[in-house]
Q: What sequence folds into this?
């Protein structure tokens, strides 16, 4: 009997390790939950700033209360379960505390409840997510409470990439390491390969979210390889935001051929509308990777220590 690889990817267990939790629900689930919301999701966003504008002008007109945030998080976890994602490492944006009466304890309690609610269906490991726009005072006060809570698996940092001074976050990364948290940082989707090297030296992350501009430098790719850093790549996100022109030109193949450890993930399913199975299928249909290579990448995502 010949197996249908497309069916296989959907059926096979997967891990999503680059996912911004409250933006991780499918558009179908979102529309079912908010039938009155008149939101048209574009295919392309005008860069990172266009995406942020879309979130502010559209999604944030729907996500107004604590319950809405919980709804957004729940449809994300349920969308992952639907795609047979068994391990979900998703970042919980610390700035969402504003929806929880500014009580970080309420936010932590909510995350704990979500973990318990879905524990028989999925291994949900929340990461602590920091937008670089968050005030440093909030990042440290709320961040430390979250680190101490024992509810978080990792730490992640995101937002604008060019000309950002990340030195103020170095202490937070040291603290995360002290608490045995996995360290991730977004860099090198829009910023250049030098910014990747600077970030690796400064924050010493375990994993890079994107990191695709490393392809422009052998030296940067070597540094990633020698440091044993994994890249958690999201091809559809890169295309929708204009970082990459099309999937055929995505640098993921060159990074893979360089021996770099990678995974394929959703980033923000509600915006980019591609599940992990969709990503695998597209990369296989275009001949970027063989089925066997994609299967190896699929399994890579389950390995937390390397
Ligand atoms: Zn991301």
A:
């Amino acid at each position: 009997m010949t197996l249908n690889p497309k069916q296989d990817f959907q059926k096979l267990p997967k891990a999503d390790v680059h996912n911004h939790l409250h933006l991780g629900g499918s558009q179908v689930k979102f529309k079912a939950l908010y039938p009155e919301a008149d939101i048209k999701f574009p295919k392309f966003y005008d860069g990172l700033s266009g995406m942020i504008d879309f979130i502010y002008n559209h999604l944030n007109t729907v996500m107004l209360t604590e319950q809405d945030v919980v709804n957004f998080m729940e449809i994300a976890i349920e969308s992952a379960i639907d795609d047979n994602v068994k391990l979900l490492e998703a970042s919980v944006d610390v700035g969402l505390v504003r929806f929880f009466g500014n009580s970080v304890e309420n936010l932590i309690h909510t995350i704990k409840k979500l973990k318990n609610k879905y524990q028989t269906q999925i291994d949900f490991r929340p990461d602590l997510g920091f937008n670089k726009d968050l005030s440093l005072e909030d990042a440290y006060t709320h961040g430390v409470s979250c680190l101490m809570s024992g509810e978080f698996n990792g730490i992640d940092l995101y937002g604008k990439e060019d000309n950002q001074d990340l030195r103020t976050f170095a202490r937070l990364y040291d603290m995360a390491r002290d608490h045995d948290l996995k360290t991730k940082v977004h860099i090198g989707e829009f910023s250049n390969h030098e910014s990747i090297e600077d970030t690796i030296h400064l924050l010493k992350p375990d994993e890079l979210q994107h990191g695709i501009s490393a392809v422009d430098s052998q030296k940067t790719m070597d540094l990633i390889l020698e440091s044993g850093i994994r890249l958690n790549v999201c091809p559809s996100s890169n295309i929708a935001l204009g970082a990459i022109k099309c999937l055929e030109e995505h640098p993921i193949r060159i990074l893979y051929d360089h021996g770099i450890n990678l995974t394929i993930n959703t980033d923000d399913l509600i915006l980019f509308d591609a599940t992990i199975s969709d990503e695998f299928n597209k990369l296989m249909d275009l001949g970027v990777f063989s089925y066997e290579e994609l299967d190896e990448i699929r399994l890579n995502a389950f390995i937390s220590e390397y």
Observations:
- The radius of gyration is 18 Å.
